[in-house]
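Write out the 3D structure for:
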Amino acid sequence: MNTVFQTISDNLVFVLQFLGLVILAFLIAYAVEKAVKRKNGDTERVLATRKIAVIGVFSAISAVLMVLEFPVPFAPPFYGMDFSELPALIGAFAYGPVAGVMIEFCKIVIKIFLKPTSTAFVGELANFVISCMLVLPASIIYLQKKSRKRAVIGTVTGTLIMTAFGTFFNAVYLIPKFAQMYGMPLDAIIAMGTAIHASIHDVTGLVILCVAPLNLLKGTLVSVVTILVYKKLSPILKDSRK
């Protein structure tokens, strides 16, 4: 009985931590977007009705892309590559950082219904937080002055921040939390990395040789595709705001 109670207690704390991070990301995005709009004399609401409808569509697409993840040869199987950040980044460029955060959160909710968690929800938390580290900086930089150059600067900056933060966050929180929530010894997780890279002997080696390259590759691919397709999609997305 005590074990069951402890498990429920741990999950409750984890859910509250997750929601706290969601609220924090939303507040940061809202404050920045509101400030930039005020500076530019833009009176459009941050969350207009038509925006919300498009955010819903983008969230659904993003959730499907999250489900369609595939393994990479340089990381253990619980790390997969997906392109769920693509709709979020496009949406954030078109409608602002708040839209990007909302797409990231809604995709997690939809994804859980499409495919139940296999990582005790740690993977979902990781995806949300680390994805926001790409989407938020990129869209905030682009929001200041919407140009192709700013889009490139924003996505490069976002990719580097996502890679650095994702590596640190995995080392100090996500991997130990995954071991705790999933009931897998930390040594066993490290051993899965060692089976791929013989030089991995601890969590630091695991995140440097597996997590960092994965986030760098993902951020680069998502950024390149976004820059290539956004110009063509932009007129359509702008029409949806009217």
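The radius of gyration is 18 Å.
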